[in-house]
Automatic annotation (TrEMBL):
The lineage of its organism: Bacteria, Pseudomonadati, Pseudomonadota, Betaproteobacteria, Burkholderiales. PANTHER family: DIPEPTIDYL PEPTIDASE FAMILY MEMBER 6, SERINE PEPTIDASE S9 FAMILY MEMBER. InterPro entries: 6-blade_b-propeller_TolB-like, AB_hydrolase_fold, Peptidase_S9_cat, Peptidase_S9A, WD40. This is S9 family peptidase. Keywords: Hydrolase, Protease, Serine protease. Residues 384-592 form the Peptidase S9 prolyl oligopeptidase catalytic domain.
């Protein structure tokens, strides 16, 4: 199943004749090039370190690459000639994050950010490609990024929490930053330079409770933009081509991803010219002139494909074909959208994948694995999934809830679990098992239920096994948080403030954070537990797994620890993924045997 993988969507050369993308066909992400649709791909980077492409310079001469070592999440920024060849290291330092942001329109400069001055703040740099020289432009305190670029001006954003964003306009000549939106508000603004001078395209949930599109200029109010299909759902993504011709919006319709296109100047809707109806479709990149766009198209029964839409001749051309060796993906179990009731009556959406034999009424109920997603500001979505098909073929029903705190359902749903409020909705974890055990009982036999999750989902799995002990019959936590207080104290400095707004501040929410920590409830653990962790994880440090394993040993239940010395926040190499998923399947087969 690990060989059923698509290439990354990729970015086009300025003339639209080449596509550059990342692909894990070697076992780890490397950068590849296609010199035309359905041509044989050429590998541009190699080795054992994950390498991805961020952009192609507007003149088509340079690729901006990022490379990380052993999952440490301390990437370095490199340049490579568009034809291939050796990498030019711009900056890659131990323990430092260096991330490419944008090229200048004339391709003279590459902009990047780095926390090389202070580990909890990011300075903005400008790298002169011809002179091979970097200079620091801006070193304001905080988590800064460069969101957009115009000649002599940078659109800067500072993250003030898990969702709060403050936006500023930076003048390169004067080295001054002028505040624009979000200062002191803690609101979820997303901005880009608009097609009209002095105007910006803004996405925010501030006014409506859902992510909506607006036009804005300094000194004016936000002006709503009508988006077909955007009335009931979040606009979760936007792409404005460099030529400022068209604005592409990604609409999240209950987990299904759709695209809408607007004229960038008038902001009026344009008819969608390519086929709709897939589970997911995303505009990944555009050519320099805006006349060609890269589409990631994801049908439910096979891996994602990459196609290029040409506005001039109105053709859709497939460029990449996914790998599906030794598999008939048409037989894969589709994900169906269902729901379960929380104890206060709130319907919790969930996607369900079932083995065909589990649909037969005469058969005993199949064992169930409930998968809680990470984030928690994320969302489980339908679509093609080789990993979950792996478990479906082994006889498990896969259930993926979007509990309160998930994205995609509006601001109130997203913020329902912030800080101490999580005490009121953490029971969504237990309610999933209670509903499944009752509603899916067949002929007097209830299904056996396991729980799995990674990152925040790993935390949810640990809470399921401790705070809600007895609800689940076995659990696997992958890079999960065991103790919210030690997590906040030990997570990477750059993440600490961003996570405080989500999980709570030890200075003001200490008691709630203790009550919401799996270690507080480990004395109730009564079912088998597996803990998976990468030793190099900067987000959820390895100490979370070790302390959970240490306190859980006293319970005398079946307990396993799978520790990867060369991984970070989740297994990234093919060999380690094979070990991880093989052991997870073996664990659930052992402790959730089919009837």
């Amino acid at each position: 199943m690990l060989d059923l993988r698509p290439p990354g969507a990729g970015v086009l050369s300025p003339d639209g004749k080449r596509l550059y993308f990342s692909w894990r066909v070697t076992g780890v992400d490397q950068v590849w090039r296609l010199d035309g649709a359905d041509r044989f791909p050429l590998q541009l980077t190699g080795g054992e370190d994950r390498t991805t492409i961020a952009a192609v310079s507007p003149d088509g001469r340079w690729l901006a690459l990022e490379r990380d070592r052993q999952g440490e999440e301390n990437p370095g920024f490199y340049l490579q000639a568009a034809d291939g060849g050796p990498l030019r290291e711009v900056q890659h330092r131990p323990g430092v994050q260096t991330e490419f942001q944008h090229f200048s329109a004339d391709s003279r400069f590459a902009y990047y950010v780095s926390n090389d001055v202070s580990r909890d703040s990011y300075a903005v740099y400008r790298y002169d490609i011809g002179a091979a020289r970097a200079e620091r432009l801006f070193d304001g305190q905080g988590f800064w990024r460069v969101a957009d670029v115009q000649p002599g001006r940078l659109l800067l954003v500072k993250a003030t929490g898990s969702r709060g964003r403050e936006w500023s306009l930076f003048d390169e000549a004067t080295r001054s930053a002028t505040p624009l939106l979000g200062q002191g508000e803690y609101s979820d603004y997303v901005m880009r330079f608009g097609a009209r001078p002095g105007h910006y395209v803004v996405v925010t949930s501030k006014s409506s409770g859902f992510l909506r599109v607006y036009e804005w200029a300094a000194g004016q109010s936000l002006t709503p933009v009508a988006v077909p299909g955007g009335e009931r759902w979040d606009v979760e993504g936007l792409l404005l081509d460099r030529a400022r011709k068209r604005l592409y919006l990604t609409i999240n319709e209950a987990g299904y991803t759709r695209v809408q296109v607007l004229d960038a100047t008038t902001l009026q809707p344009l008819p969608l010219p390519w086929p709709a109806g897939l589970d997911h479709q995303i505009v990944a990149a555009a050519s320099a002139d805006g006349e060609q766009v890269v589409l990631a198209l994801a049908p439910p029964d096979r891996p994602r494909e990459t196609a290029v839409w040409n506005w001039r001749d109105r053709t859709l051309t497939r460029w990449t074909v996914p790998s599906t060796p030794e598999a008939d993906t048409r037989q894969f179990a589709p994900a169906t959208l269902e729901s379960y009731p929380a104890r206060d009556g709130t319907p919790i959406p969930m996607f369900v994948r079932r083995p065909a034999r589990c649909l037969a009424a005469a058969e005993p109920p199949c064992p169930v694995i409930v998968h809680f997603h990470g984030g928690p500001e994320s969302q489980s979505k339908p679509g093609f999934s080789p990993i979950w098909q792996f478990f479906v073929e082994a006889g498990f029903v896969i259930v993926e809830p979007n509990v309160r705190g998930s994205s995609g359902y509006g601001k109130a749903w997203l913020d329902a679990d912030n800080g101490a409020k999580r005490l009121q909705v953490i029971t969504d974890i237990e309610d999933a098992a209670l509903h499944l055990r009752s509603a899916w009982t067949r002929n007097g036999v209830a299904p056996r239920i396991g729980v799995y999750g990674g990152s925040y989902g790993g935390y949810a799995a640990l809470m399921a096994m401790t705070r809600f002990a007895g609800a689940y019959d076995a659990g696997v936590s992958n890079v999960g948080i065991a103790n919210l207080l030690s997590f906040i104290e030990n997570t990477a400095p750059y993440r600490r403030q961003l996570r405080v707004t989500e999980y709570g501040d030890p200075a003001t929410d200490r008691e709630a954070m203790i009550q919401l920590s799996p270690t507080r409830w480990v004395h109730q653990l009564k079912a088998p537990l597996m803990i998976v962790q990468g030793a190099n994880d900067p987000r959820v440090p390895v100490g979370e797994a070790l302390q959970m394993h240490e306190v859980a040993r006293a319970r005398g239940v079946p307990l396993e620890l799978l520790l990867f010395a060369d991984e970070g926040h989740g297994a990234s190499t093919r060999a380690n993924q094979a070990l991880q998923w093989g052991h997870v399947l073996r664990f659930f087969q052992q402790h959730l045997p089919g009837r």
